[in-house]
Amino acid sequence: MDELIQRVRDSGTDDTPRAFQMVAETISHAGDKYSLEWTDDLRRFPYSFVGEGNSSSESLQVVLAYFDSGETIACFFKSNGSVNLCALTK
User: Could you list the residue range(s) of the whole structural domain that residue 57 is in?
Assistant: First the structure.
């Protein structure tokens, strides 16, 4: 997640996964300082991510980025490290 955030800040979205591009504008305007939190406890997230390209047994992990400017984004990663979905959270 840190690498993806830095990539957006350094060179835009051209070299980022499509799912991450959904939050790229938020990242470009967010403050410079942020912290990351990782979890595999999806009970905190009320939505099901079973669907296109996912099976119900696939393990997803969530990385949250908390920006000092108040924005928070969450990205769901597959066990192989690929980004499955990113969203701005409230």
Answer: 2-89
